[in-house]
Specification:
Structural class of chain A: alpha/beta
CATH superfamily of the largest domain in chain A: Medium-chain alcohol dehydrogenases, catalytic domain
Number of domains of chain A: 2
Distance between the termini of chain A: 28 Å
Shape of chain A: globular
CATH topology of the largest domain in chain A: Quinone Oxidoreductase, Chain A, domain 1
CATH class of the largest domain in chain A: Alpha Beta
Oligomer: homodimer
Helix content of chain A: 10-25%
Radius of gyration of chain A: 20 Å
Largest sheet of chain A: 7 strands, mixed
Order of helices and strands of chain A: EEEHEEEHEEEHHEHEHEHEHEHEHEHEH
Largest interface: A-B, 37 and 37 residues
Number of helices of chain A: 12
Chain lengths: 352, 352
């Protein structure tokens, strides 16, 4: 099969900076869509994969799974998309489509292993892995291409493809609704989307943070209240009062103070800490039939629903636009939580 | 208010053996039922409270919350019960009846604090706490008295009031049904009831145990399969295959191997470990949208449903009957997990 060489940015080892490199993209098959990438968000997972924090990274790693672009070519069997459409690609580019998870629109839990947008085996180009959106173009099966509402700013829509769906999916799956008291722990790339979504769903949104100084920003994003988790009196006053808590803390931590905030039968969902967690007290769950769960991005159908909701409610991410050449500095700043709230790469910079 | 002095067994300090003592029972009020206690189960919680393991014990502690007896007197407003009825009393004898938990038949989570059968403040006899079923009789509000199906053996029915409802409630609440693959971790007082209930509900029941020698007993109780949790190959073979896991381990432990057994969207419920748990890996919940929850006994309505189910399916506990005077030896044996599967005190021994 013929391939096309394109420009990309990637890391050649876990200690290397990201540098320009050339990668191959497959020719457009009958179910494929070729996308000229205009913007790509910078997700903390990109950094984890570059650094091999989770193991299993193959080099070069070309990260990027918050992809926005324009359709430049469609395969013979492609429906619903035409040249010129503004589209998105998130964390997955393929899955088996036959297992029980895929049948339930939960491709992220494909029992045969979803093909992730980067660092998964590439079924189409033997001996290589998938390369992500830090590149000028990508070819993706139509089932994994999302339609981006026209009213959304393209650059600011990019983070919806990962940070957006990661926070939308639990809020939607656990049926957060008008009047619910919803806590969002942590105000970063994920948390700031969680606040926007929970607000748009009509919930009473409480930003739960260690940093009182984040309160003003959280309120500007849609939080109705700020709860400083280091303040024991405040935590005590809120105990047993939350219908749902979205926990975006990206590192291992002690869940006990947060479990204590939940109502009877309520759930806290972890979306950030793909990490060893601290011990917790079993009694915290037992006394009140409380739940702790996890959630991973979302399925393709749900991602489209999220984008449509964003279109209706004019929701995008708060971003800082950078050039591709600034990526290594951006990684340092993400690692230091120094971004409000998501870097997005303007892919013009790679093409010029 | 006049009281009656009756015989009981209790501990005068956290290090003391249980010894005979006299306690007061209130006179029968208009909503009260007086019960002549025939049998009382021995629950691990009794020992924890005697030893003050959870803090907050007031002495003397008279334990016992798996009470079976005969109605000997009813108050003027008592409906549904008559002298001579075989009845049960479980872990609670009162609650506020007005909070949102009570309104939802979840008296165990009463926001104003349920009155537990022992070691709760006694509203009726100032300055004392409630005394449990290690005694000859008890006076209980009709709302907290359960009807025991006539076909059940009275002694063997006693543990249903705590071990029974503790395992029934999560199986019922999480809607375990025919064909589900259900794991029960731990084969003790709780676990053996979990196996019986899950089997009767039509589930494919897997006993998960560290002890291969428990396999035969588990199968006799209704398990269809035995999974030895120390066997990595067996654990690997079962990964991602369970619809529900009932975790009866009574001490803190590492949940990771069990979380790994759950299907996408499935739940493991802790019922035993009112204890600090080990750390776990957040990724275990995130990869598969898995849930860990807790469950505490059950509400009164649910307890009656459980007893009715037991009547229909002829389910009771496997017990070893003891005299009241054997209680200290029994405590040692419970602590050493040396009982199949529940001690029940024949209260004739205290009356003679």
């Amino acid at each position: 099969m013929s391939t096309t060489t394109i420009k990309a940015y990637g890391a050649k080892s876990k200690t290397a900076d990201l540098t320009p490199l050339d990668i191959e993209r497959r020719a457009v098959g009958k179910d494929d869509i070729k996308i000229d990438i205009t913007y790509c968000g910078v997700c903390h997972s990109d950094i984890h994969t570059v650094r091999n924090d989770w193991g299993g990274s193959s080099y070069p790693v070309v990260p990027g799974h918050e992809i926005i672009g324009h359709v430049t070519e469609v395969g013979a069997d492609v429906k619903n998309f035409s040249v010129g459409d503004v589209v998105g690609v998130g964390c997955m580019v393929d899955s088996c489509q036959t297992c029980s998870s895929c049948q339930k629109d939960l491709e992220q839990f494909c029992e045969n292993g979803a093909t992730f947008t980067y660092n998964s085996p590439n079924k189409h180009i033997e001996g290589t892995q998938t390369y992500g959106g830090y590149s000028t173009s990508v070819v993706v099966d139509q089932k994994f291409v999302l339609s981006v509402p026209k009213n959304l700013d393209e650059a600011a829509a990019a983070p919806l493809l990962c940070a957006g769906i990661t926070t939308w999916s639990p809020l939607s799956h656990w049926n957060v609704k008008k009047g619910d008291k919803v806590g969002v722990i942590g105000l970063g790339g994920l948390g700031h989307m969680g606040v926007k979504f929970a607000n748009a769903l009509g919930a009473h949104v409480v930003m739960i943070t260690t940093s009182p100084e984040k309160g003003k920003d959280a309120k500007a994003l849609g939080a109705h209240e700020v709860l400083v988790s280091k303040n024991d009196d405040e935590m005590e006053a809120h105990q047993g009062s939350f219908d749902f808590i979205l926990n975006t803390i990206p590192v291992g931590h002690n869940m006990d103070p947060y479990i204590n905030l939940l109502k009877v039968d309520a759930t806290m969902v972890l979306v950030g800490a793909v990490e060893p967690m601290d011990g917790f007290h079993g009694g915290g769950l037992i006394m009140g039939r409380k739940h702790v769960a996890g959630s991973l991005i979302g399925g393709i159908k749900e991602t489209q629903e999220m984008l449509d909701f964003c279109g209706e409610h004019d929701i995008t991410s708060d971003i800082e636009l950078i050039d591709m050449q600034d990526i290594n500095t951006a990684y340092e700043r993400v690692t230091n939580s120094d971004v409000k709230y998501r870097f997005v790469i303007d892919m013009k910079s790679l093409k010029s």
